[in-house]
Amino acid sequence: MPVTPPRALGPIRIEKIVAAPLFGESPKGGWSNEIRAEDSIHALIAVHTDAGIIGYGSCFTDGRLVEAGVKVLEPFFLGENALEPERVSEKMHQNTFWMGRGGTLTHTISGIDIALWDILGKATGLSIGRLAGGRHQERVMPYCSLLMEEPGLMAEEIVRYREQGFRAFKIGWGPFGRRDDFRLDEAIVAAAKGALPQGGKLMVDAGASDAYWPNGLKWALRTADMLAAHDVAWFEEAVKPDALEDFITLRKSSRLPIAGGEVLTRRQGFIPFLTQGAFDIVQPDVTKVGGLSEQRRIAWLAQDFGVRYVGHGWNTALGIAADLQLATALPNVDLVEYIGGSAYVDQIMATPFSLDADGMLAIPDRPGLGVELDPDAVARFSPVAKSLFSRE
């Protein structure tokens, strides 16, 4: 019998894009100039279309900058076909080169791009994972991302989240490497390691992208030896983020994998780090790097160079949702980052994430991102939350 071809899906036009900065419960970052709860470091994005479909995304930067970025980008997205996320996002990148690449506009495009993929999934009835590569795995392990504390408190924090079902942990920032006390650094790691569940994983993040990071390559080399002795799974941001040669030397010398890349943006920024062997594990952030379109390109490039991809997920529930979709669309992705105790992760969705008995997260196979925001919950953290959900 002849097969009737499916009806073509016509263009769905972008009518407007709105940004909603999140305030009130911003999580501490361990930064030298610490984040306050009332600071805006994340914003949600909504792309409204003439078909009534709304796509959602997330940006990692001050919400005021995102609001300004949306206004600047408006001539390049208004009236565009929302079903073409890669083309529309690249159009925005290409036409704003002269305003600076990799800053506010790139972070803003990140949220828009995620939202466009969400729309494409909703319009086709497919999850982003299926659209972006297929279903390589059905679930993935989240690692609970925690700030470092003094040894006793560090162990208590690990136990607290271990009891919630987490089996993998990353500890970072805080006092580590900032007090010129190598014994304290090791004591923190030993305390965390001792509090892990049976068979649990521990990763360590120095946070060398912090303002005025005081340590150099020799500190990183010595610390890498200590972490390897404690069977730490990887050492993240061990040297300043632009210290390419130091990363290369550290990776060649270290007995444990070296991770980094969370502050790099756009695929072009990753090329020297991948081609010159700076990382064992590359960590682009989907809410900074240019969205899912850029994240997917970087992840494939990394795999071609034998570098493991693990997305940097210190952002929001929508950032985790995007990372989950990419985790299934790519082979050999077994971890996603999950901030422990963040309201912007645990308290803004209609159905919060839930770990299974093995400490794993199921990867949604519903249209788009596969998750739904709770308008009332979002309104607690943003005075303009209504604009995300209403076409008015």
Portion of residues within helices: 25-40%
Q: How large is the count of helical segments?
A: 14
Rg (CA only): 21 Å
Task: Tell me which CATH architecture of the largest domain applies here.
Answer: Alpha-Beta Barrel
According to CATH, what is the topology of the largest domain? TIM Barrel
What's the CATH class label of the largest domain?
Answer: Alpha Beta
Mean pLDDT: 95
The CATH homologous superfamily of the largest domain is named Enolase-like C-terminal domain
Sequence of secondary-structure elements: EEEHHHHEHEHEHEHEHEHEHEHEHH
List how many beta strands DSSP finds. 12
Can you characterise this structure?
This protein starts with 13 loop residues before the first strand and ends with a helix. Strands 4, 5, 6, 7, 8, 9, 10, 11 and 12 form a nine-stranded mixed sheet that branches. A three-stranded antiparallel sheet has the order 1-2-3. With 392 residues, it is an alpha/beta fold. Helix 1 (63-77) packs across helix 3 (104-124). The chain has two domains: 14-126 and 374-389, Enolase-like, N-terminal domain (Enolase-like, domain 1); 130-362, TIM Barrel (Alpha-Beta Barrel). The chain is built from 14 helices and twelve strands. Pfam families: MR_MLE_C (PF13378), MR_MLE_N (PF02746). This is L-alanine-DL-glutamate epimerase. Residues 151-257 form the Mandelate racemase/muconate lactonizing enzyme C-terminal domain.
